[in-house]
Amino acid sequence: MTPPGRVGDNPLMIDMTAVDREIRAARAELADPDNVKGILSLPTRKRIWRAMLDPADDELSYQHRIRLKIACVQHVHHLWYRAFPEDQRVEKMIALAQQLMNHQVDPVDAEDWADGLTNNIYCEVEDFNNITQPAVFVADASAHMVTSACYRDPDYDTVGRTVDDDELLPDSCASAAAGALNWQPLEQTDVPARRAFWTWYLDEAIPTTLAPWGPTRSPPPRQHRYSGAPAWRRDSEPCPRPRWYNAGCAHGCPHRRCTSRQHQRNRTSVPTWCGGLGESQRRRTWLSRHTHLA
Q1: What is the DSSP string of 273-285?
Q2: CA distance 290 to 287
Q3: Which residue has the higher pLDDT, 232 or 56?
């Protein structure tokens, strides 16, 4: 039996020794007594993601990346339904990511729909409490998942200068489990829940993701490139576009609760953080820049 934290044998071209080494290092980081918040840092996660890359198959590396993100969103999906029992938007985002993996939807439209979910949810939620805030983090994670699925570059999450631990999936999922972002005070954080998420991530999610698909170990057969109703029909979209959408461009407007004094205190500006909601690629976790909403 494969011990916890080990991926086991895998016939792909992935260096499983490197994957196991990085997982062990990640478990040691979680167990460090100084890690009082139970955070799995972004540099550690990136080292795991790099080890998971298959140098002989870029498409398979992409599939692994998205399958892992989908698993993370599904793991915390119940937190979304706890706040919004009848709302199917996160479920639609999961289906959209799967369609992107199979070349069944236009990535440009999919990225717009992901932006639409992010824009809408931050405008819809007025009271960020211990029920709605984790749900918003789940929605943010699902939007990141779809945006990542729009780009088939295997290095999408592993290159770049991002160093903020609150960036990139699955940290939004860990924040949903903990009920707080990494920068928030310890007394507002469910640390055992965050540690439990990362333990599941290392011991179950990664091994399951890297398990062979079957005898052929190849992606599903490619179907016709795009499907569905015309892109600009609102009733055909997984998430309706916010009112300021016009021909696919998001013209950002300040959040109704963002005042100039609050922005000054947070050292941000309305044009920089509220006007940039349409820029989904490598976008920052918007809520982490607006502490007055937390």
Answers
A1: IITTTT--TT---
A2: 5
A3: 56
Residue 87 has which token pair? 């709302």
Average pLDDT over residues 183-210: 95
Q: Is 236 left (phi over 0), alpha (psi -120 to 50) or beta?
A: alpha
User: Could you count the other beta carbons within 10 Å of the beta carbon of residue 177?
Assistant: 26
Cis, peptide link before residue 134, omega less than 30° from 0:
no
> According to the model, what pLDDT value does residue 157 have?
87
Q: How far apart are CA 22 and CA 31, in angstroms?
A: 14
The whole-number pLDDT of residue 103 equals 95
Nearest to 289 by CA among 154, 191, 130, 167: 167
**Whether residue 62 has pLDDT greater than 90:** yes
One-letter amino acid for residue 281 of the chain: Q
The number of residues making up the chain comes to 294
DSSP 210-243: HS--SSS--PPPP--S--SS-TT-GGGSSSPPPT
CA pair distance 130, 176, nearest whole angstrom: 10
Token look-up 């770049």 returns 160
Q: How many C-beta atoms surround the C-beta of residue 183 within 10 A?
A: 15
